[in-house]
Specification:
By secondary structure, this protein is of the alpha+beta class. The chain has a domain of 236 residues: 2-Layer Sandwich (Ribosomal Protein S8, Chain: A, domain 1). Helix 1 packs antiparallel against helix 2 and helix 2 packs across helix 4.
Length: 363
């Protein structure tokens, strides 16, 4: 396994560079700040597959005129607690946060807010959105479909996206419980990072074009598929498949977006489906005001107690004991806010290439 050199960059340096790049390609300054905040949040939380390293993908899609840098979002249907939004093919990193703001405002008004979105694009890490709800002492939900990458149960070709979902619960004194997961066994970005690092991937993550197990990330990227969460039927693969189905229906069928194998690619160069069943990529957001159900302080105290009880579990052999959902990301953020964000050299080189092409300084 080859060692990959990394370099560490200060948060504001990466933030400023990313914002200037998006503005260069026609994104309004305020929208650019919002978009890069989503990417930097991913890097801070140790989710490099969805961080500033994805900037190249967004730039390529805008250059190919496949993303509208200045969308005009519109609400096409709504009630006091729900809305359906058309994102006008804008950056998901912009459409997502603006749509989620609507969900949170509705929750403030009537107790809960639910927003479906169509005609959008890749919206970054799903966990970004529930983190925003936590700032208002709400429970937050987010999910999205994505480009076909995953084979359905007992299938041997790509038919579903990695279809991530996230939910977060505020605590009183403890860090919040944050669940952020793909419904595939792993996010596609981790396959890309393994290829960058010239590393193999574990058995059970992916299959080749004939449906056989592969440990070569290039084989998966070249036409293979990821597997649903659970690896195979004996290990619960049907549950990951069902979760992916849930995300597809709520994000796409409910909003009028392209579901399943018809979602547009989120990386330039991938095959564009010949058939469309809706508009763009779809998202589904939710926000719940806790005091609509129970006293806020009581809820947060009980979440603290839940965390304490789980942490007190007898550790399994050769472990430090149970993790609480969100622990690794919380720990990574504490370190990276102090030390900066490490980037592997293949990502650095891509950012340098963007710098050369735009004449926006990077190093």
């Amino acid at each position: 396994m080859a060692e990959v050199e990394t370099r560490t960059y200060q948060i504001e340096h990466l933030r400023g560079f990313g914002q200037r790049v998006l503005v260069h390609f026609g994104v309004p300054e305020e929208d650019a700040r919002q978009a890069i905040d989503v990417l930097i949040t991913a890097d801070l939380r140790g989710i490099e597959s969805h961080g500033i390293g994805r900037l190249r993908s967004y730039v390529d899609l805008m250059l190919a005129k496949k993303i509208n840098p200045r969308p005009e979002m519109k609400i096409v249907r709504q009630t006091p607690s729900t809305a359906t939004i058309d994102g006008d093919n804008g950056l998901g990193l912009v459409i997502g946060p603006k749509s989620y703001e609507i969900a949170m405002r509705k929750a403030e008004d009537v107790g809960s807010g639910w927003v479906s979105v169509r005609n959008s694009n890749h919206f970054g890490i799903a966990g970004y959105y529930p983190l925003e709800a936590l700032k208002r002492d709400m429970i937050g939900w987010a999910m999205t479909n994505s480009t076909k990458m995953v084979a359905p149960l007992w299938g041997a070709e790509r038919m579903l996206g990695t279809n991530p979902l996230a939910i977060a619960f505020p605590a009183k004194r403890e860090p919040p419980v944050v669940i952020d997961m793909a419904t595939s066994v792993v996010a596609y970005g981790k396959i890309e990072m393994a290829k960058h690092k010239q590393q193999s991937i574990p058995h059970g993550w992916a299959i080749d074009v004939e449906g056989r197990d592969t440990v070569d990330p290039a084989v998966m990227i070249g036409g293979g598929a990821l597997l649903p969460l659970g690896l195979d039927r004996d290990h619960g693969c049907h549950k990951g498949y069902c979760l992916a189905t849930m995300v597809d229906v709520l994000s796409c069928v409910l909003s009028g977006a392209n579901w399943g194998p018809f979602a547009p690619p989120d990386v330039q160069g991938m095959e564009t489906p010949e058939r469309r069943v809706g508009k763009g990529v779809g998202h589904f957001f939710g926000a719940m005001r806790i005091d609509a159900f129970i006293d806020l302080d009581e809820f947060k105290s009980q979440v603290d107690e839940w965390i304490h009880v789980m942490r007190a579990t007898q550790p399994a052999p050769d472990t430090n004991g149970p993790l609480i959902p969100g622990d690794p990301e919380h720990d990574a953020e504490q370190i990276r806010r102090q030390q900066g964000i490490p980037l592997i050299m293949p990502v650095v080189e891509e950012l340098r290439e963007i710098s050369v092409n735009t004449r926006i300084p990077f190093d």
